[in-house]
Design a protein that fits this description.
By secondary structure, the protein is mostly beta strands. The chain has one helix at 137-144; strands at 49-51, 56-61, 70-75, 90-95, 99-103, 109-122, 128-136, 149-150, 161-166, 171-186, 189-197, 211-214, 220-227, 240-242, 248-249, 255-259, 267-268, 272-273. 3% of the residues lie in helices and 38% in strands. The strands form three sheets. The chain has a six-stranded antiparallel barrel. The chain has a six-stranded antiparallel barrel with strand order 9-10-11-16-13-12. A two-stranded antiparallel ribbon has the order 17-18. It starts with 48 loop residues before the first strand and ends in a 12-residue tail after the last strand.
């Protein structure tokens, strides 16, 4: 779960499993220095992305969000500042004052945004944390000229060209969706219908929570979260794929994301979370 060991995720995991190595099932050591230059795309836009102290993220909106609605930030469940949710755990409406660095289109620092609460967080079936900010979409647009990234409501398609945009590293990884994994297992966690990247999205520690954008539409179709580091099977830092028949395969060096198209169905007017809405399939507390 691609986060460096430079923040609050430097915590003890799995009881006696020790310290989370880079808090990252795809990076056993904390990255240092700049991201690989070969991965940087000069024309990339970082507008709408944010940097956390140990992860990446983005200011996101639902298709029906209004300018006066409180703005939201999307990152991974395993990036939650109070520690990674346990299997089966769902956190809603938890107070938070976490800060995020809002980036300009070129990756420069524009402002510090602050959360008021964790709206939703889980590592069950998916790997997402959604924060509510103390400001609105309209205010962010007026003060900084930044529009939120919009979540797609459609299941992504294999072969789609995508950009994984890391606010932490100010780096863009460009590749395509290679396919989908019925179950992706890592240590005690299981994620469903995960996105598998083609090889050029060689994401590293710190890219956890990066929005995965459809290169054509610019819509968010997934959130970057993990990869198999050294070929182990279903262990921390080494997720394995489980097909519909229960067969397990391992793809060393392959990286993954969790789809986001189901999230908008769980938000009603005012961009308020409502897990009881018809069509909402996010795991519930």
């Amino acid at each position: 779960m691609k986060t460096p060991l430079s923040g609050l995720l430097a915590v003890t995991l799995l009881g006696t499993a020790g310290v989370l190595s880079a808090a990252n099932p795809a990076s056993a050591a904390a990255p240092t220095g700049a991201a690989p230059a070969a991965q940087v795309r000069a024309a990339a836009s970082f507008a709408g992305t944010v940097a956390l102290d140990d992860c990446s993220g983005s200011v996101i909106r639902m298709p029906g969000s209004q300018p006066a609605d409180p703005a939201l930030v999307l990152t991974n469940g395993h990036c939650l500042e109070t520690g990674m949710p346990s299997p089966g755990e769902v956190i809603t409406n938890q107070a938070s004052s976490r800060t995020f660095t809002l980036l300009s289109a070129s990756g420069g620092r524009l402002a510090t945004l602050r959360a008021t609460k964790v709206v939703y967080s889980t590592m069950t079936d998916t790997d997402v944390t959604i924060y509510q900010l103390n400001t609105t979409y309209q205010s962010i647009q007026q003060r900084y000229g930044i529009s939120a990234l919009t979540l797609s409501t459609n299941h992504p398609a294999a072969g789609t060209a995508i950009n994984v945009v890391s606010g932490y590293w100010k780096t863009v990884y460009s590749c395509s969706i290679d396919g989908f994994v019925p179950e992706l297992k890592e240590a005690d966690w299981t994620w469903k219908d995960s996105v598998r990247y083609t090889s050029s999205c060689n994401t590293i520690g710190g890219t956890s929570g990066s929005p995965v954008l459809d290169a054509a539409s610019g819509l968010v179709v997934a959130v970057n979260n993990t990869g198999n580091e050294n070929g182990e099977t279903c262990t921390l830092d080494n997720p394995c794929e489980v097909d519909a028949n229960g067969n397990i395969t391992v793809h060393q060096g392959t990286n993954y994301a969790e789809e986001t198209y189901g999230i908008p169905a769980c938000f009603g007017p005012g961009t308020r979370l409502n897990l009881a809405l018809a069509g909402c399939t996010l795991p519930k507390p």
